[in-house]
Amino acid sequence: MTGSWITFDLTSVEPEEGAPAPDRLLSGDPRFRTWNVEEAEGGLYAGVWESTPGKWRIVYEEWEYFRIISGYSIVTDDKGEVIHLRAGESLILRPGFSGTWEVVETTRKDYVIRL
User: Fold this and answer.
1) Average pLDDT over all residues of the chain
2) Coil/strand/helix, residue 66
3) Could you tell me which residue ranges the (S)-ureidoglycine aminohydrolase cupin domain spans (predicted)?
4) Contacts of 41 (CB under 8 A, 6+ apart)
């Protein structure tokens, strides 16, 4: 890293392992890996996230932009609106969004989160 940029070189970052909270899990046994490549002052995060198949409830208190790198996921809001996400597609989820995230095929995304 130089002072002016950071590359998304995942070989230099140890992934964090995780899973949905048990009270949010709806189906499957999804497992997460997150490579946080940037944590800036003011609550800004950027990196890469990956999940194996499963479905869980999501509630966003933060703002997030992401782009799907690989896989297939379905995001559904509490009103029933469905968004199918495949490689190359991007989305912004705003604070207050709630619904479900279903990983149909192991999905990897890059993200920028602002708290």
Assistant:
1) 96
2) strand
3) 39-111
4) none
Helices and strands: H and E segment counts in the chain: 0, 9
* pLDDT tens digits for range 68-77: 999 999 999 9
Phi/psi at 9 (5° precision): -90, 95
**According to CATH, what is the number of the domain 20-114?**
2.60.120.10
Nearest alpha-carbon partner for 103 in 68, 59, 78: 68
Q: How confident is the model at residue 3 (pLDDT cuts 50, 70, 90)?
A: confident
Is 107 within 8 Å of 72 (Cβ atoms)? yes
Q: For residue 2, what pLDDT band results from cuts at 50, 70 and 90?
A: low
- Of 70, 8, 3, which is closest to residue 38 (Cα–Cα)? 8
Calpha distance 43→7 (Å, rounded): 19
75: phi then psi, degrees, rounded to nearest 5: -110, 130
Tokens of 65: 């932009």
Q: What is the pTM of this model?
A: 0.94
- The residues spanned by each domain of the chain are 20-114
